[in-house]
Design goal:
Elements: E1 3-4, H1 5-9, E2 18-21, E3 29-30, E4 32-36, E5 49-53, H2 62-75, E6 79-84, H3 94-103, E7 107-111, H4 116-146, H5 152-161, E8 170-178, H6 181-186, H7 189-212, E9 221-223, E10 226-232, H8 237-248, E11 256-261, H9 271-288, E12 294-296, H10 302-307, H11 312-323, H12 336-346, H13 351-358, H14 362-376, H15 383-406
Helix pairs in contact: 2-3, 4-5, 11-15, 12-13, 12-14, 12-15, 13-14
């Protein structure tokens, strides 16, 4: 549990501390305060620190302060606080401010007369209190999400005490990082693990800041590899999540991120159902990889039926029986007939539009249609065959996407 830089600056007694750069990243979490005594900080921090620079034990000229900004950014510190005034660091050079702004590193100026013992005491006390409160909030939400709580009345009492707004309609969103294998394919295991944890923390920090700005905000819950948001229901939620997905792209590096959105629930006792729905939608999003990264449970349609089939072999057999003969493994393009069938169904049987979609001549399309009907023993005029083929193609596209990911 931690405080953000913004929450620390809002503490009573720290009003004299001023943000000089990196205001867009004040949502970063602060694990603990660290007073820098050495020439550099790269070897002495692990990420998440709010680093204080006094200039007492080491000269801090412009070159040294620039070095601290670079090393702080590379190490993932939460922010850099520079004490200014006589007799050590008189002012923060403009070049240091500009570099911190370029990196997006929160740079804070603290008057030297504001004693460090007061600052560290206030931050330390707040960290302990905030950690306890956040732990309690997350404990309540985790119990409600799992359905494992002593009594609903007690959970509601605790939520009211901790100012958790549980009442009112909610939409649950489950988010998960995908393509993690990219990190481990391109880096040594220890380095890849550190990169993964850094990205996960950056995503969590961003989500917490994003959700705090929304009405009736609830904390982000981390459950295994899931980030869980409980958002107040509103008509623009899809657009808001699309913007969130776009903003997260700059954080997740070469990995991918997908989201599953549950149906609206009106009471906290329905959170487990909402989480299950969001998980189902998330699984589909990871398989189909929509451009917005989002799949809404309300729009799953037939996929909701397929998700309910516990034995995957039943689905695989259905796909094989419906499409298997059309896969011509000895040809240069073994899936051309399946892709043609898919195009025809996507265009509601309009052969001209299907040919345009596939960028082939109409005569070529007609030849493929004859081949499809010959191999399947079915007619494209048969509505039952079209329905079965549509479902089978939906599963085939999901499977093909997974195969390409593993290739």
């Amino acid at each position: 549990m931690s405080l953000t830089v913004e929450e620390i600056l809002a503490l009573a007694g720290l009003e004299e501390m001023t943000v000089r750069a990196g205001a867009s990243n004040l949502h970063r979490s602060v694990r603990w305060p660290y007073v820098a005594e050495n020439e550099g900080i790269g070897e002495w921090v692990m990420g998440g620190e709010l680093v204080f620079v006094t200039g007492i034990n080491h000269p801090r000229d412009e070159a040294n302060l620039l070095r601290l900004v670079r090393e702080g950014d590379a190490s993932g510190i939460a922010g850099l606080v520079i004490l200014t005034g006589e007799p050590f660091i008189r002012r923060i050079p403009e070049a240091v401010v500009e570099l911190a702004e370029q990196y997006g590193l929160p740079l804070i100026e603290q008057p030297y007369l504001l004693k460090m013992v007061i600052v560290t005491h206030l931050i330390g006390t707040a960290l302990v209190q905030m950690a306890q409160a956040k732990r309690s909030r997350h404990d309540i939400l985790a119990q409600l999400l799992s359905g494992d709580y002593p009594s609903l009345a007690t959970a509601r009492q605790r939520a009211a005490h901790l100012k958790l707004p549980l009442d009112g309609p909610r939409r649950l969103v489950a988010l998960r990082l995908s393509a993690v294998n990219v990190l481990f394919d391109n880096h040594a295991a220890d380095h890849a693990e550190r990169l993964l944890q850094d990205v996960r923390q950056a995503v969590q920090d961003f989500l917490e800041a994003w959700s705090r700005a929304l009405p009736e905000a609830l904390p982000v819950v981390v459950q295994g590899d899931l980030f869980i948001l409980l958002l107040a229901d509103h008509e623009n939620i899809r657009a808001a999540l699309a913007n969130l997905y776009r903003d997260l792209q700059s954080i997740i590096a070469n990995m991918a991120l997908f989201m599953g959105l549950a149906s609206k629930v009106d009471a906290c006792e329905d959170y487990p159902k909402a989480l299950n729905q969001a998980r189902q939608a998330l699984d589909v999003a990871e398989n189909l990889r929509p451009t917005t990264g989002l799949c809404d449970f309300n729009e799953l349609g037939v996929l909701r039926l397929l998700q309910a089939i516990g034995d995957r072999s039943v689905i695989d057999l259905f796909v094989k029986q419906t499409l298997g003969r059309m896969i011509e493994s000895r040809r240069k393009q073994p899936n051309s007939l399946i892709e043609t069938l898919d195009a025809l169904l996507q265009e509601n049987g309009n052969a001209l539009k299907a040919a345009q979609r596939l960028s082939i001549h109409r005569n070529t399309l007609n030849q493929r249609i004859q081949r499809i009907e010959q191999l399947s023993g079915q007619s494209l005029d048969d509505p039952l065959f079209r329905m079965n083929a549509s479902v089978a193609l939906l599963v085939w596209r999901m499977t093909e996407a997974q195969r390409q990911d593993r290739a």
